[in-house]
Every structure is written in C-alpha cells, then in structure tokens.
Amino acid sequence: MLEIKALTCIKQDRCLFESLNFSLLSGQIMQIEGPNGAGKTSLLRIISGFARPDEGNVLFNNQNIAEDYDNFAQSLLFIGHRTGVNLQLTAYENVQHWLGVHGYGCTEDEIYSLLGKLGLVGLEDVPARTLSAGQQRRVALVRLWLNQAKLWILDEPFTALDKRGVAMLQGRFQEHLDSGGSILLTTHQDLTNSFSSLQTLVLEYRH
Ligand SMILES: Nc1ncnc2c1ncn2[C@@H]1O[C@H](COP(=O)(O)OP(=O)(O)OP(=O)(O)O)[C@@H](O)[C@H]1O
C-alpha cells in the first residue's frame, strides 16, 4: 500500500534522516519512535504530502503521491498532534464541520450517539475550549469513526487520553486493521503487546 523510498530530510542544516526505506501493507500498523526532535513529525508530514523531502519518494499503491495527490488524499486521514478541533465550536458542531468536509451524511442522532461512545455525554453542546485536554482529544478522534480512508497517519493520538480512552482507541485501530486499513503513528505508548502486525521504526537523534 505505502512505500517509502530513499527519503532524506534536512532541517536547519541538520539531516534528520537519510535514505529511509520501508513499506506498510494493508492490515499493518507501524509505530515511529525516537527522542524529541528526531524528526518523527517531519517524517509524517512528508509521507502525508504536506512537506517535500529533500530526496526520495512516497508511493501509494505504486503511484508517486506527488504526481496524483488528489487521489492519495482521498485514501488518507491525517490527525496531527495539534488536535484540529475548532475550540470556538461545540463538539457537535466540529463533527458537523468534518462531515461537511468529507461529504458524509450522518443524522443528528448518529452524531450524538458517536459522541456518547467517545465518552462525551452531556458535553456535546458546550464550546470545545471549555473541555479538558483529553476530552478535546476525544473530539478530534471522532474522525476515526467517520472516515473511510484506508491509510491513517496519526501524530501522538494517545496524548492526554486516560486508560479507557487508550483502550477504546486501540480497539478502533484493530477494527481498521481487520478491515484492511493501515496505520502509521508516532506515540510514546508501548504498543508491543497490543497489535500482532506492529512494526517499529526508530529514528535516532542525529547531530
Ligand atoms: N518548519 C520547520 N522549520 C525549521 N525547522 C523545523 C521545522 N519543523 C521542524 N523543524 C526542526 O526539525 C527537527 C525535528 O522536528 P520534529 O517535529 O519532526 O521532531 P519530532 O521527532 O516529531 O519531535 P517531538 O518528539 O518533540 O514531537 C527539530 O529540530 C525542529 O526544530
């Protein structure tokens, strides 16, 4: 599904990674690990097509993403470490907004039911700025239930979640993998015993 070929990234005269190669198949999950500043977010942004590598290519289904980005974008769900939640809107309004962007239909009842499933009962209609960090993260993660993208790229998705939230998210990941999806993520969470298809890529801090 995803092939990373000879990727090199240089930031502020520092080479973050050089000639990086790996692939991610349908049903696989890959965790990118490494110390602060190693280049994990930079790598995710390049693979998502938001930034250009200094060298190398990203292929999705054998197609260079730079050559047909619109097609790739339809298969991609990216959630960054900044949640992307509009803090002026309520949780319900944020979901409505994402539904509009992705062109999916959902009834009012379905939206409330989903927010309830994510532990946000009673918080659906208050401005997101009044929610806790973990509750805001839960609002952001609603997109994982509203999306049909095959490839999920997630930067620190577990941040601020409590144990139940972590378990719920891992359950959602497994559903996605079981249905043939793939996940590339950064996290400091230990996922070793959680996913049989887990691959790990460690980025060292290069001086
Ligand atoms: N837009 C930018 N312009 C210049 N330098 C940048 C830019 N974005 C990132 N960097 C630098 O690239 C390096 C890697 O940053 P990156 O955010 O990819 O690291 P990270 O591994 O995700 O770190 P963390 O674990 O702290 O999130 C850092 O030294 C950072 O200062």
From TrEMBL:
Pfam families: ABC_tran. Residues 2-204 form the ABC transporter domain. InterPro entries: AAA+_ATPase, ABC_transporter-like_ATP-bd, ABC_transporter-like_CS, ABC_transptr_haem_export_CcmA, P-loop_NTPase. Keywords: ATP-binding, Cytochrome c-type biogenesis, Membrane, Nucleotide-binding, Translocase, Transport. It comes from the Bacteria. PROSITE patterns: ABC_TRANSPORTER_1 (PS00211), ABC_TRANSPORTER_2 (PS50893). GO terms for biological process: cytochrome complex assembly. SUPFAM superfamilies: P-loop containing nucleoside triphosphate hydrolases (SSF52540). The keyword NADP does not apply. Gene3D superfamilies: P-loop containing nucleotide triphosphate hydrolases (3.40.50.300). GO terms for molecular function: ATP binding; ATP hydrolysis activity; transmembrane transporter activity. The keyword Metal-binding does not apply. This is ABC transporter domain-containing protein. It comes from Pseudoalteromonas luteoviolacea DSM 6061.
